[in-house]
Design brief:
mainly beta, Immunoglobulin-like, nine-stranded mixed sheet, five-stranded antiparallel sheet, 6 helices
């Protein structure tokens, strides 16, 4: 009995060392030799009172990197990216997945850990609404959640070893939260964004590797029990732990400006995109298909302002667009050198089209006073702008006498191009 407890305690202490095995697919996939399954799974043949199994949760990286307000994207291979990844904060819940009679998502861990295994109610600073605060322990590849508050380590029950749980996680950065409800069937709240926050959510489901390892179990009863009791003490003993497969709910826009045929300097002073900004986020639910972020058409809209990595609008006179002698060697404007506008890009609500507004200033070579002007453009792509997809908006700038804006949308996922001809615009 003591030996088993000591083993799991040491496993918890060695968690950072174990992380290095993640990339090899050998951790939390069920590859270790399982314990002998009980003849009657409702009466597990394990010690009960002193054997404890820590709640450990793995994480998989979504399609593009998380944005953190004022710090920019988690770009691979950069120090800025690693810092942002480390600083990101997530919230985690775990609720019974077999929906026992009387279960409600209003129940906190503080009230009944057999219903709510994980939430923020038992942290050092209790949070009776949000999930338990967590951070990521690695940057690249899959990684593990660890709790930001280490005053209470979480363990599966040693008494109710076959109670299965659903695990949920979400990331909202500093988006404005209101109307928080922990109800009978789900947990939801209203969310307001301004273009600088990334919003993610996810439900733990068996990965393909875990499914393969379940199928590889040689004992038929054990194989069915693992499927039935994900995720529980029973499955944790067999090294099947939840993997939260996060997804982005917003669309990411990045902006590049290219010089047209002008010898004079054009400065891009601001970039705005009109988008819906208010929605409802279901972060945990009995019916896990209901988890997600919805932005109804009748909700408020606003102009999102492109910001730099400080979280402030683009500084004036900082983004100069001018044709160089080297550029003139290229007839096609998009073969010329680009100027990236705002390192992190902008997060908008998925939609059919957006209204793009740009303020520009032209500095004349003949001594005339600088001229400032505003141009607007409707941007669209085939189908729609999708959640979890990054689009690069490429803008060709020609100057005041011949104001033309060309926009080419380049999805991060393979979705082709949309060319907007100059004579269709300005």
């Amino acid at each position: 009995m003591r030996k088993d407890r000591k083993t799991y305690y040491h496993l918890w202490l060695l968690l950072p060392a174990l992380l290095c095995f993640w990339a090899c697919g050998n951790l939390y996939t069920g590859e270790e030799s399982p314990l002998t399954p009980p003849d009657d799974p409702d009466n597990p043949q394990w010690p009960t009172e002193e054997e404890v199994v820590p709640v450990m949760i793995a994480f998989t990286d979504p399609s593009y990197s998380i944005l953190t307000r004022g710090q920019g994207a988690f770009e691979a291979g950069t120090e800025l990216g690693r810092r942002n990844w480390t600083n990101a904060r997530f919230y985690v819940y775990a609720f019974r997945s077999d929906n026992p009679e009387g279960m409600t998502f209003a129940t906190t861990r503080q009230e009944d850990p057999e219903i709510c295994l994980v939430d923020g109610s038992t942290q050092g600073t209790p949070d009776l609404e949000h999930g338990r605060e967590a951070k990521l322990t690695e940057y690249e590849g899959g990684s593990f959640f660890t709790w930001t508050d280490e005053t209470e380590q979480l363990y599966y029950s040693s008494l109710a070893q076959i109670n299965p749980f659903n695990f949920f996680a979400y990331h909202i950065d500093d988006a404005v939260v209101s109307n928080f409800v922990r109800g009978t069937d789900d947990i939801r709240f209203d969310l307001e964004i301004d273009g600088t926050q990334d919003v993610l959510g996810g439900v733990a489901r068996p990965t393909q590797e875990q499914q393969n390892n379940i199928e590889a179990l040689t004992d038929d009863t054990e194989r069915e029990n693992v499927r039935k009791y994900l995720y529980s003490t029973y499955t944790a003993h067999r090294n099947f732990h939840p993997v939260l497969q996060m997804q982005h709910y917003l669309t990411r826009l990045k902006f590049q400006a290219f010089p047209g045929n002008t010898e004079e300097s054009i400065y891009i002073q601001s970039v705005k995109v009109n988008s819906r900004c208010s929605g409802t986020f279901v972060v945990a639910a009995k019916d896990t298909t209901q988890v997600g972020l919805e932005f109804p058409e009748d909700r408020a809209r606003k102009d999102f302002v492109l910001c730099d990595t400080t979280g402030l609008p683009l500084p004036a006179d900082s983004f100069r667009i001018a044709t160089t002698p080297e550029d003139l060697a290229y007839d096609h404007v998009y073969d010329r050198h680009p100027t990236n506008l705002g390192e992190s890009g902008m997060l908008v609500v998925p939609d059919d089209a957006y209204r793009l507004t740009m303020e520009l200033k032209q500095r004349f070579n003949d001594g005339r006073p600088d001229a400032t002007y505003t141009t607007e453009y409707d941007i669209a792509t085939t189908g729609c702008f999708k959640a979890g997809t990054q689009y690069t908006i490429r803008i060709a700038v020609y100057g005041l006498e011949e104001i033309k804006v060309d926009v080419i949308l380049t999805p991060w996922n393979d979705g082709g191009f949309v060319d907007v001809e100059p004579d269709e615009g300005f």
